[in-house]
């Protein structure tokens, strides 16, 4: 080190022996500073000398899952050959040998998959991923001692990718418990155990790389990211903390090669445990339902709504038969707290609502026209709400008048415009007939045939209403205006556009 620094110093300016003394003194000072500046807890933490004791403690509860699906395969027909051709006997012998003759008896084909799981109840309750078992009609659970038991499905949930199985056993099984995944921090050690590539029980170690990852796999994405090696076959296996508690269920990997590149994802125990309890109790999920359609809040929308900073979930639609309607929630409200939990962005709300018990009355804090209000909502059941029809808009009909603003050419609703753009008979608002391709409105994917329902959270029915609201917002010193825009199917969304 001294020689390298010396070689880089200008000739005759610093002698090597003096530089050595200075460097040694500096290194000592830096080391002393680090030792005194770091918290004692940080200094005390170090990598485990071995994970062997932990692995030995929990491995007995980790199982391999073998799932087989029997499907009917279509028979191939023999090529149509002229009678007496030399190849007739050859083709017939070939296809019959492969079981693909012209018989009417349908053939069956078995599809197999391998994965991992773990026991959570000594009576024989096993947890794995839903995608491991799929539509299997023959499921076996293989234990670390080689014992193989048939399993039946207690319940499964595709939205969080979980399944609960039960095996019959004449003795208590080794089981593990869920831990507090919310207490995990990036940098904490974790241990993954599973059945990669069908090799059998394998142990890998790593750290928590991140929390709250959204990989667009479902509506409740909130994954733990880890660099512990997770490969095909690890799906459904447990992710342990250093106490031997399950803090995650290994579910997915991000990999261009199909193998581990140090980016694996696990469903947090805090998300999985309530779902598993519902599947055990009811054989299905019973998630809370609010009955609103939401969208995220960007900086421009936050400015237009007077929120200060981008936060919360913006209500873009309210189900007429949902719990939110009688509670007084309305389009344009921004939900910032739900049942005492902060809603930082729109992704938080579905997860919080779904985990709240059906029938519970909760406080919902919304920002409406710049002021916070609290509404009480009694939650319904999501599975019932999903069966209901979409929102419908009120009706109107006025003479046609056109005007331009914000790069948009607008017209009052008319029967001719309804026919031209395929708008519903009960659609209300101002029809957009042209969009300047160089405008911010075009960048926000507004297009002809869309309908402006509200401007600045006030209903509009004519182009004059639109321009009047825009002028009023400008006079308030606002930089953006918030439009509520509906497409031809009546689906609405908020769009913030600059008025400068």
UniProtKB/TrEMBL annotation:
<feature type="binding site">
    <location>
        <position position="131"/>
    </location>
    <ligand>
        <name>substrate</name>
    </ligand>
</feature>
<feature type="active site" description="Charge relay system">
    <location>
        <position position="235"/>
    </location>
</feature>
<keyword id="KW-0574">Periplasm</keyword>
<dbReference type="InterPro" id="IPR001478">
    <property type="entry name" value="PDZ"/>
</dbReference>
<feature type="binding site">
    <location>
        <begin position="233"/>
        <end position="235"/>
    </location>
    <ligand>
        <name>substrate</name>
    </ligand>
</feature>
<dbReference type="GO" id="GO:0006508">
    <property type="term" value="P:proteolysis"/>
</dbReference>
<dbReference type="InterPro" id="IPR009003">
    <property type="entry name" value="Peptidase_S1_PA"/>
</dbReference>
<feature type="active site" description="Charge relay system">
    <location>
        <position position="131"/>
    </location>
</feature>
<dbReference type="InterPro" id="IPR011782">
    <property type="entry name" value="Pept_S1C_Do"/>
</dbReference>
<feature type="active site" description="Charge relay system">
    <location>
        <position position="161"/>
    </location>
</feature>
<dbReference type="Pfam" id="PF13365">
    <property type="entry name" value="Trypsin_2"/>
</dbReference>
<keyword id="KW-0645">Protease</keyword>
<feature type="binding site">
    <location>
        <position position="161"/>
    </location>
    <ligand>
        <name>substrate</name>
    </ligand>
</feature>
<keyword id="KW-0346">Stress response</keyword>
<feature type="signal peptide">
    <location>
        <begin position="1"/>
        <end position="37"/>
    </location>
</feature>
<dbReference type="InterPro" id="IPR001940">
    <property type="entry name" value="Peptidase_S1C"/>
</dbReference>
<keyword id="KW-0732">Signal</keyword>
<dbReference type="InterPro" id="IPR036034">
    <property type="entry name" value="PDZ_sf"/>
</dbReference>
<keyword id="KW-0378">Hydrolase</keyword>
<protein>
    <recommendedName>
        <fullName>Probable periplasmic serine endoprotease DegP-like</fullName>
        <ecNumber>3.4.21.107</ecNumber>
    </recommendedName>
</protein>
<keyword id="KW-0720">Serine protease</keyword>
<dbReference type="GO" id="GO:0004252">
    <property type="term" value="F:serine-type endopeptidase activity"/>
</dbReference>
<dbReference type="Pfam" id="PF13180">
    <property type="entry name" value="PDZ_2"/>
</dbReference>
<comment type="similarity">
    <text>Belongs to the peptidase S1C family.</text>
</comment>
<dbReference type="GO" id="GO:0042597">
    <property type="term" value="C:periplasmic space"/>
</dbReference>
<keyword id="KW-0677">Repeat</keyword>
<dbReference type="Pfam" id="PF00595">
    <property type="entry name" value="PDZ"/>
</dbReference>
<feature type="domain" description="PDZ">
    <location>
        <begin position="376"/>
        <end position="488"/>
    </location>
</feature>
<feature type="domain" description="PDZ">
    <location>
        <begin position="279"/>
        <end position="370"/>
    </location>
</feature>
